[in-house]
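Intended use. Records such as the Phage portal protein, lambda family entry shown here are meant for training and evaluating sequence-to-structure methods. They are not intended to support clinical decisions.
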Amino acid sequence: MVASAIGVFAPGAAINYMRRRQALHSYAAASNAGPNKAWLPSNKSADELIKTDHKLMRARARSLTRDSSHVSGAIRKICNNVVFKGIHPQANLRTLNGDAKDRLNSRAESQWKKWAKAVDFHEKENLVLRHWWHDGELFAHYYFDEDLLRKGIIPLGLELLECDHLDAGKSSLTDGERIKQGIQYTANGKTDGYWLFREHPGDNTWLTMNRSQFYSAQMINHLFIRERISQNRGVSWLASIIMEMRDFSEYQNAERIAKRLVAAFGLFVTTPYPENLGSFNPFGGDGKPLTVDSIPDYMESGRIQILPPGMTVESPSSDRPGATYEPYTKTSLRGASTGFNMSYEAYSNDYTDASYSSARSATLEERRGYQVQQFLLANKFHQDAWERLWLMNRLSRTEDLPEEIPVVWQMPGWPWVDPFKDSKAAEQDLKNGLTSRHKLCMERGIDYDEINNDLQRERADVFSLNTQTGGNDNAGTD
């Protein structure tokens, strides 16, 4: 209405009014004015961005993991906390009662333990987590293994394949075939299988004879974490800090080189008379003229050296690293530690400015992040392997066990930050009915059944000892 009224008398003013009014209803984040004019990110699908950027991004992430002490150390700490001695199953069959149920659960756990040792499952736990961090994805290939069958072990073979094995250049979107970046889909959009190179394409030995083959999704578990709906491949978890840590590493190298150059020179000999650098009349000595060549390359401690006239000795000086070195280092490492979901102190191993309360808060926050990774690892990798193991057992008839066995995964826990206060809090929660001994054991990474059996044995040992010595619990009391 207002614009129409203005437009009757001044059309130009009406247009300006509408433009300014429209600007009031726009998002500031979409402004193209000033320094934001060149910030024009793409709105492509996740798969399309991965298609163009994944190869270089994972190569840079792997380089940082190899060469950066901070990045490699952080990933090692993460694996130590998330995996530690391994994530173990606790079979949870409830269809039977009493001893029969316990024996069946124990047999299932024993068969898993034998199989896990045969395929080196603990090493694979660490590898899955490491590859999620620097690659974002990998493949678990399951197959029938006759060698395991001959050993009396459930014959489920397992090998891990790096994401390089995926033939990402293979795409076909015809009516009869839907292949996108090496992943084949059914008509309703479900994953049908994968086109994989049998040998690693980065191995030059197999470069000329390596062709991709189709593997059914029943044999392959594509291990990655989806962060966008349109994403069907994984992205390195280091993606947000790759450039920051690369710049920091280059800065560190530049400072080291600068200091090495300064340290390479002990003294400088200077003169205001460069035209007299030929020969000089000696002030004394053996009668030979003093020249520039008379000055030794190295000076020994306590040496008295006569210099040509007009020459003086100066020691090199450098202000590298300067006063901004430490603040810049801390700022860079703090930013990178956020990308790892770690505290600055844990990431940098610098506890000089940390108080007990801040360190405790940071530790609890870190552990929450570790628990999320434990859940992802157990849900994506361990649970899938567990279900495939009993399916293979049914097909091979290795053990007389059910095809489906419910399981609870025992995660590695952590010691209490403040044992006295934490134990008191746990005791109070037990009294108030807010937790259970079984849950407390799981939080600390302890097997409840194992603790319970140990306590029973201890009680039995005490009873046996009292019986042999003729003592009793009430001895010496009225």
